[in-house]
Design brief:
There is one protein chain. By secondary structure, the protein is α/β, with parallel strands linked by helices. The protein has three domains: 141 residues, no CATH class; 100 residues, Rossmann fold, CATH 3.40.50; 188 residues, no CATH class. Strands 3-2-1-4-5 form a five-stranded parallel beta sheet, with helices on one face. The radius of gyration is 29 Å and the shape is flat. The relative contact order is 0.06.
Length: 465
């Protein structure tokens, strides 16, 4: 009954997607020739040749959507990955559609803009409809409908982590019936122990189970063949959660390559489109900020020139993305020979080496404004971990575990640690913790939040000297 119910929803979703696709094709025609802003110079072509293409379009998109797994259960999957798959399937379908036009409809010239409109509409419309559908399911599952039941097989930290994650996401509609494992110590008060590994078969026979999640600790991995044999051909979904969670850092994940799953324990979030989006964000926002700040920067440069002998800018070697070194720009706030006697040292409160103007600039972080040029050159980002001098990096690397992970993204003018007050002579451990928190949870929205908090908090001058 459960599988029939699932197949019904699968067929219903497929029919809904194909109706939307057909509607997008007709709408693309009207956008080009009746509603669109681009004028038509050679007359409006008839609709009927476009309607003839509906049959191959429906077939091609049905095959493409199935090929990209858009109708497999995704309770534990990423919604973003589903949208990416929709875009991939629609892009492939559009290429096949162009080929069909070229080989089977050569007597009629179809509008290229109609194809482009259709491609964009198919991605946006199907993605939006699925988002609405997922939200409806989320509400229903929170209300106790459309639920599935899971048994966790395993013990220890990995099993508890799986249980905690599922309880944090009631919207996925998976309820944990309990845990099967020989070690029942350490289970939370809300977790029911169902028996040992030898009792798995009896548990499956005695309860309605939809998902079996194998979360075995390292010492029990050898039991996996026996447990799979106990599950046998039961029509349950089987998941395996390897006991390597404790080693994962910086957005670890799983990727399939030629049918083989690869587990990433460490990966930067800024690759592919994310990297392109962040770079575009830096160029647009950084460029506009530089234009707005130009009069202030010019005034600061003039005052520095008039009040202190030496160059206006101070160039200092720092370490950025992947440990690469670059010359970071700042307005000079100290005499030229400030480190001649002391060598490389951190600035401190009431630092006597500062000029009078330098103290003011540092208090309100105005000495950092020239780093906008580093951003435009691609050496830095607007938001990211603050770069350190190589001599300090080597010291901190020996003292603080995981310190070098902060170099998996570009250094920033401001960062999550800075807006939380961890700047200047404050706790390095807390600073690194906030830097890694930023990397693990990066998004453009998070960048915007940090930039806003920078304006609110950092310019107050706390821990800036």
């Amino acid at each position: 009954m459960l599988k029939a119910h699932s197949r019904f929803f699968e067929q219903l979703t497929l029919v809904g997607d194909l109706v939307l696709i057909a509607g997008c094709w007709v709408l693309a025609y009207y956008l080009r020739f009746a509603l669109g802003p681009i004028p038509v110079y050679r007359g409006v072509p008839p609709l009927w040749p476009y309607l003839y293409l509906l049959a191959p379009i429906v077939v091609v998109w049905a095959v493409a959507f199935r090929a990209f797994g858009l109708y497999r259960p995704r309770r534990l999957g990423s919604h973003f990955s589903e949208w990416v798959d929709v875009a991939k399937a629609s892009s492939l379908g559009s290429l096949v559609l162009v080929a069909i036009m070229e080989f089977f409809f050569r007597s009629f010239e179809f509008s290229r803009l109609v194809i482009v409109y259709f491609w964009v509409l198919s991605i946006v419309t199907v993605s939006f409809s699925r988002a609405v559908f997922r939200e409806a399911l989320r509400v229903a599952r929170r209300g106790g409908y459309n639920l599935r039941y899971a048994v966790i097989v395993g013990s220890g930290e990995v099993a508890e982590t799986v249980i905690d994650r599922l309880r944090l996401r009631p919207d996925v509609g998976i309820q944990v019936l309990g845990v099967v494992g020989d070690d029942k110590e350490g289970l939370g008060p809300q977790t029911k122990w169902l028996g040992g590994y030898a009792d798995l078969r009896a548990v499956l026979d005695g309860q309605t189970v939809d998902h079996v999640i194998l979360a075995l600790p390292h010492e029990d991995v050898a039991r996996l063949p026996m447990l799979l044999n106990e599950i046998g051909d039961d029509p349950v979904t089987i998941h395996v959660v390897p006991d390597i969670i404790r080693f994962a850092s910086l957005r670890g994940g799983v990727e399939e390559f030629e049918g083989v799953p690869f587990i990433h324990l460490r990966e930067s979030p800024l690759y592919g489109w994310n990297r392109l989006f962040k770079r575009g964000f830096d160029l647009v926002v950084g460029g506009l900020t530089l234009l707005l700040a130009a009069p202030l920067m010019a005034a600061i440069a003039v005052v520095i020139r008039l009040t202190s002998p030496g160059p206006i800018f101070y160039r200092q070697e720092r370490m950025g993305l992947d440990g690469q070194r670059f010359r970071m720009l700042k307005f000079r706030t100290m005499p030229v020979d400030a480190e001649a006697r002391s060598g490389p040292v951190w600035a401190r409160p009431d630092d006597p080496r500062r000029t009078r103007l330098g103290a003011f600039l540092r208090r309100f972080s105005l000495d950092e404004l020239p780093q906008l040029f580093n951003v435009l050159r691609g050496e830095m980002s607007l938001v990211g971990p603050r770069p350190e001098r190589p001599v300090f990096v080597e010291e901190f690397r020996r003292k603080i575990p995981g310190y070098m992970l902060r170099h998996k993204v570009k250094a920033g003018i401001t960062g999550w640690a800075q807006v939380n007050g961890w700047r200047g002579n404050t706790s390095l451990e807390r600073r690194i913790e906030d830097d890694l928190h930023y990397i693990e949870r990066w998004s453009l929205g998070f960048d915007l939040k940090i930039l806003w908090l920078t304006l609110v908090r950092v310019f107050r001058g706390q821990n800036a000297y």
